[in-house]
Amino acid sequence: MIDVENLVFNTVFNAVENVRNDVTVNKGFIEKNAKFPCVVVRETGNVPVEETATDPCSENYSRLTYQIEVFSDKEGTARSECRELINIADEAMHGMKFRRTYLSDQINVNRTIFRQYARYSAIVGKGITTVSGEGQQQTTTTTFQMYRR
Questions:
Q1: What CATH number is attached to the domain comprising 138?
Q2: What is the 3-state secondary structure of 6-53?
Q3: What confidence score (pLDDT) does residue 142 get?
């Protein structure tokens, strides 16, 4: 399985953290006692691209789908706060060559909390892993390729 979840999460987390240090960023779900504003990064799809397979069981590229959800409970400005944060995440996702396929506001059961979300998609190739350094200073880096038709 081609897995870039940590790369996507860390990229969005760092982008948000560089602009606003008062935002909670979670992977996959929102906590029951969440502190707002909150950004959730979730992989919603990971499907192999069959036409790139070199044999029936190979997975050379996968179509990945991520959803970024932003929540705010700021009275009077929740919508604008969500838009600010979704724009930060949007730039981070575009920087990784993900294409936004959907953006919407969502009515929450709790109407004091505003939610906005965006979906992103990209076709990503399996990574090339390189090791550098020695001993305790050794680091492993994986570089992923985006599929171009």
A1: 3.30.70.1700
A2: HHHHHHHHHHHHHHCCCCEEEECCCCCCCCCCEEEEEEEEEEECHHHC
A3: 64
What does the alpha-carbon distance between residue 55 and residue 47 come to, in Å, rounded to a whole number? 16
The letter for the amino acid at 41 is V
Specify which residues 118 forms β-bridges with.
68, 103
Domain contains 21: yes
Instruction: Answer yes or no: is 149 within a domain.
Output: no
CA atoms within 13 A on the CB side of 64: 27
> For 108-122, how does the pLDDT look when each residue is reduced to its tens digit (9 = 90+)?
666 788 999 999 999
- Domain coverage including residue 107: 5-143
Query: Is 148 within a domain?
Result: no
Q: Cα 96 from chain centroid?
A: 10
**Each residue of 51-71: pLDDT tens digit?**
777 777 778 888 999 999 999
The pTM of the full predicted model, rounded to 2 decimals, is 0.83
Q: Give residues with Cβ within 8 angstroms of 18, minimum separation 6.
A: none
Nearest one of 60, 59, 70, 115 to 92, comparing CA atoms: 70
